[in-house]
Amino acid sequence: MKSNFEYNLCNWCLKRQYIKNYRLKKIVEDCEICHGIENQIYKISYKIIQATKDYQYDTFLIGLTLDHSFYDNEDKFRSRFKIRGKENIKASLLREIRKNFGKISNKKIDLNSPDITVNLQIGKKFETTVSVNSSTVILSGRYRKRKRFRSISNNSDNVDCLEINQRHIENLLKKKLMTLFHSKSIIFWPLGKEEPQSLVVGNGRPFYVTIKNSKLISFKHEFSIQSKGLIFNIKEKLPILPKATPFYIKKVRTLVTCEDNLKSSDLKLINDLGIRIIESYSRGYKSWNFIYQMQSELKTQKKFELLIVCDNRFPIRRFINGDENVSPNLYQILDKRCMCEFFDILDIASEDD
Ligand SMILES: [Zn+2]
């Protein structure tokens, strides 16, 4: 049986075994555990530098998959000398690579939420592959729409209209973010919808955006993007998407045309309505929204401007047009057929604003 001194171990591996009175040997490549992997640490770190050079980040984490032969070598040695509970070759190597890479790159290790995660695979002959993943960037902001989009299709129904508008805004934002973040997987989550011809003023409509595989992870969190009459104000970077979206109330201005001539008693009916709960049914789902206040002002005999303060999800056009799946709707309240010409979002506010 070999004694520990008969084993050829490099100093790096020997230190890890905590054997007292060992004699240092000048062994590197002949090490029976690591075959001189310690000498590869700088080379590996440099490979990571190369793989991460396009990323703008502050913190990192490195994971390692090491060829099993290295563990086998160490296990054999340790079982021979009954060495237990000491750090193994992988943990030791990983610690050194992290330390070395941190020093070269001047970035910090973050075990919980690193900007980038580097995965290393080291084979039997030190063949190394490096893959890099960045953490998903989650931004929250608001957009304002200062120009009306031309209605894209006259045939589309209201739901399509809202979708078309949202997709159009999404495309404009994505195009800008793709260039900024060098990412193709961007998801836009607006809180509520408006029509292509609606303006969105005031604070703007809140939205979230998630950006996967971004090259830009560390940046100034407040910035704004302008595109074709839209202003996107990014307010902050979030650690996760909120589980429940905050509660918002919107203030909307609409122009309504009535089939009959309007009387002052009609407008009084609207203005005195007070707080009402409105039930609506859409795509198999029932929902309830509050109207908090309505204020109408006659513009011509058949037209009036209507200001509505209501929950953010309240279906404005369907309410005004007397959609039978919205109850009570304006037709039921006035007993007159009305039509929404357009609506603008004047403000969207939450309790925190
Ligand atoms: Zn060694």
Description:
- The chain is α+β, with helices and mostly antiparallel strands and 353 residues long.
- The protein folds into three domains: 37-134, 2-Layer Sandwich (THUMP fold); 137-238, 2-Layer Sandwich (Alpha-Beta Plaits); 248-350, Alpha-Beta Plaits, CATH 3.30.70.3190.
- Helix content is 25%, strand content 35%.
- The protein has eight helices and 15 strands.
- The chain has helices at 11-17, 41-51, 68-80, 89-105, 158-181, 264-271, 316-320, 330-334; strands at 59-66, 108-109, 116-122, 128-134, 137-145, 185-190, 200-212, 223-227, 230-238, 248-258, 276-282, 285-298, 303-311, 326-327, 338-350.
- The strands form three sheets. It has a six-stranded antiparallel sheet. The chain has a five-stranded antiparallel sheet with strand order 6-7-5-9-8, with helices on one face.
- Helix 2 (41-51) crosses helix 4 (89-105).
- The longest helix is centred in the middle third of the chain and has 24 residues, at 158-181.
- The chain starts with 10 loop residues before the first helix and ends with a strand.
- The structure holds zinc ion.
- Zinc ion is lined by residues 9-10, 12-13, 31, 33-34.
Give me some keywords for this one.
353 residues; alpha+beta; THUMP fold; Alpha-Beta Plaits; 6-stranded antiparallel beta sheet; 5-stranded antiparallel beta sheet; 8 helices; 15 strands; binds zinc ion
Care to give the gist of this entry?
The protein is of the alpha+beta class and 353 residues long. Helices cover 25% and strands 35% of the residues.
